């Protein structure tokens, strides 16, 4: 075990590529950053910049072709509930289980006894405002509710860190804003460690302590911007940080697509 | 079978366009469904009775509904028809149980190992197009005129359509769900059991419906062949025997029982679907 000062996660000059039609296509050339305990790190970049790829490598779904991912002292660990993932897709809940059943299942397979699993599941679902939905099946829920359940499930297994892959990317603007606020409040309270992939500058500034900007193809870390003091759009420096991130992404030429408001 | 498993935003048909599509509803169309169906059913029975009474068709080749109903009642009260039906259902059940067990083993092997996949793909694509009753002569050669031979052809009839559906279901498990399972630390077998098998349930039930229908046709056909060969047994034998003794109403009664069982089993499978995959939003509501 490492001391409290050792980073929860070290992404040590990781390169990742895909094999496509027999050829090796690099997606990430050099990703290097670390995440300390309790820190909220945002991975920001234009589409195709490999930010989800980096997250999948941290989750253990992909192996780096060079460099290493060090999670709590372990090098390139396989997938595990210590890095609970929340995906963008609404179909990440098991449709044959109820809302409560989905969260209980996650706890049960990670070794929690039945009574404790139920109590903790209810507790976390209540935290996400889903106490009236316990016995519903996922298909009866709206997209926003499904993402809430997925977040409750990820939090309930009490992971070393939360990995979120654009969890609000498929939601309408209003729901997204509300969930961003709730997530910010909850992770502040639970002091969770968070690695969050986004392509929205505002989301990155609102939720993050530091923003790791990925750029280039194959991508590298262009800059790491500290936004820890900026927890609302009215905070002094918010506009400045936003501007800085905007110009970093603008160098990519993708700002003209209108993706970044 | 619909492939629309749990895609977000699939909508139930809005009321009004539900049943009658683009057809214009006349006075007949405005009657409730059950009433329309009852009237049509009664009319068909009436035409049947009318034809037998009026045409003077020989009672040795054709029976009217009244005689068939009497034969049914006699068959039930004497126990002949009940015994035959039970024999057939028992063999169908045994054959299906074996077929389902083999389906689970083969498809799980096929999705967990590459060799299993190759073997299953090849074998099922070779055997599936073969009408299942075609292997009856071989079964008779191997097992004689026995129940084992009948169970064998039934299991074979159920197995291949089911493996095709189930392995399709296992293969089309949403990749996000697989990642969620792996993220929870599930190993290969637990992933198959906890994630892939339930995800394959809509396909598995569709396969079971096809499978039982194949098995049902096969066992009746096989029994008819057996009956002709003089072996005692189930409904196929009952029909063949009745023909032999020129008990034509009994022949029809046997056919009615076969049809009724078919309808009943279809209803059972529809109920199972409604209580599981339809309730979970993994399949659009099956119209009854």
Automatic annotation (TrEMBL), chain A:
Keyword Transport: yes
SUPFAM superfamilies, A to Z: P-loop containing nucleoside triphosphate hydrolases
Domain ABC transporter: 11-241
Keyword RNA-binding appears in the UniProt entry: no
Keywords of the record: ATP-binding, Nucleotide-binding, Transport
Database matches in InterPro entries: AAA+_ATPase (IPR003593), ABC_transporter-like_ATP-bd (IPR003439), ABC_transporter-like_CS (IPR017871), ABC_transporter_ATP-bind (IPR050166), P-loop_NTPase (IPR027417)
Matches recorded under Pfam families: ABC_tran (PF00005)
Alphabetical list of PANTHER family matching this protein: ALIPHATIC SULFONATES IMPORT ATP-BINDING PROTEIN SSUB, TAURINE IMPORT ATP-BINDING PROTEIN-RELATED
Name listed for the protein in its UniProt record: ATP-binding cassette domain-containing protein
Organism taxonomic ancestry: Bacteria, Bacillati, Actinomycetota, Actinomycetes, Streptosporangiales
Automatic annotation (TrEMBL), chain B:
Stored Gene3D superfamilies: MetI-like
Intracellular or extracellular location(s): Cell membrane
Membrane topology: Multi-pass membrane protein
One matching Pfam family: BPD_transp_1
The keyword Transmembrane is assigned to this record: yes
Keyword check for Ubl conjugation: no
Region entry Disordered, spans: 1-27
Ranges where the ABC transmembrane type-1 domain occurs: 85-269
Alphabetical list of SUPFAM superfamilies matching this protein: MetI-like
Record keywords: Cell membrane, Membrane, Transmembrane, Transmembrane helix, Transport
GO biological process: transmembrane transport
Family: Belongs to the binding-protein-dependent transport system permease family.
Entry protein name: ABC transporter permease subunit
Organism: Actinomadura physcomitrii
């Amino acid at each position: 075990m490492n001391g409290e000062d050792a980073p929860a996660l070290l992404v040590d000059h990781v390169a990742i590529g895909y094999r496509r039609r027999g050829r090796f296509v690099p997606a990430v050339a050099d990703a290097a950053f670390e995440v300390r305990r309790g820190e909220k790190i945002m991975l920001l970049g234009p589409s195709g910049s490999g930010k989800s790829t980096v997250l999948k490598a941290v989750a253990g779904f992909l192996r780096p072709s060079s460099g290493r991912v060090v999670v709590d002292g372990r090098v390139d660990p396989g997938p595990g509930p210590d890095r609970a993932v929340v995906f963008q897709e609404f179909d990440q809940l098991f449709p044959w289980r109820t809302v409560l059943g989905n969260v209980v299942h996650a706890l049960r397979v990670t070794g929690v006894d039945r009574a404790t699993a139920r109590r903790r599941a209810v507790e976390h679902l209540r935290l996400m405002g889903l106490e009236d939905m316990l016995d519903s099946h996922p298909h009866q829920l709206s997209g926003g509710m499904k993402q809430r359940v997925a977040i409750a499930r990820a939090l309930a297994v009490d992971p070393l860190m939360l990995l979120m892959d654009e969890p609000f990317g498929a939601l309408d603007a209003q729901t997204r804003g509300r969930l961003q606020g709730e997530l910010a409040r909850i992770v502040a309270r639970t002091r969770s460690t968070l690695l969050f992939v986004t392509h929205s500058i505002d989301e990155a500034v609102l939720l993050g302590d530091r923003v790791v900007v990925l750029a280039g193809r194959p991508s590298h870390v262009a800059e790491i911007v500290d936004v820890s003091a900026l927890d609302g759009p009215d905070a002094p420096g918010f506009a400045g940080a936003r501007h800085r991130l905007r110009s970093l992404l603008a160098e990519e030429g993708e700002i003209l697509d209108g993706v970044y408001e | 079978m619909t492939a629309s498993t749990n895609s977000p935003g699939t909508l139930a048909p809005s009321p009004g366009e539900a049943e009658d599509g683009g057809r214009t509803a006349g006075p007949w169309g405005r009657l409730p469904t059950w009433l329309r169906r009852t009237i049509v059913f009664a009319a068909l029975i009436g035409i049947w009775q009318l034809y037998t009474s009026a045409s003077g068709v020989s009672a040795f080749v054709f029976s009217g509904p009244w005689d068939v109903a009497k034969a049914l009642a006699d068959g039930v009260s004497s126990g002949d028809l009940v015994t035959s039906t039970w024999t057939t259902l028992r063999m169908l059940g045994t054959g299906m149980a074996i077929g389902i067990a083999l389906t689970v083993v083969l498809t799980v092997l096929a999705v967990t190992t590459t060799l299993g996949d190759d073997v299953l793909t090849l074998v099922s694509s070779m055997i599936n197009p073969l009408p299942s009753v075609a292997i009856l002569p071989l079964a008779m050669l191997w097992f004689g005129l026995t129940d084992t031979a009948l169970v064998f052809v039934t299991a074979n009839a159920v197995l291949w359509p089911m493996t095709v559906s189930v392995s399709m279901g296992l293969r089309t498990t949403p990749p996000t769900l697989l990642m969620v399972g792996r993220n929870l630390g599930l190993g290969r077998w637990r992933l198959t059991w906890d994630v892939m098998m339930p995800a394959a349930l809509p396909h598995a039930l569709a396969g079971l419906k096809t499978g039982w229908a194949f098995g049902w046709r096969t066992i009746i056909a096989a029994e008819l062949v057996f009956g002709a060969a003089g072996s005692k047994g189930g409904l196929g034998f009952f029909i063949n025997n009745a023909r032999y003794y020129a008990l034509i109403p009994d022949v029809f009664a046997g056919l009615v029982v076969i049809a009724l069982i078919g309808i009943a089993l279809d209803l059972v499978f529809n109920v199972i679907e409604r209580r599981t995959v339809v309730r979970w939003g993994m399949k659009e509501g099956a119209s009854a």
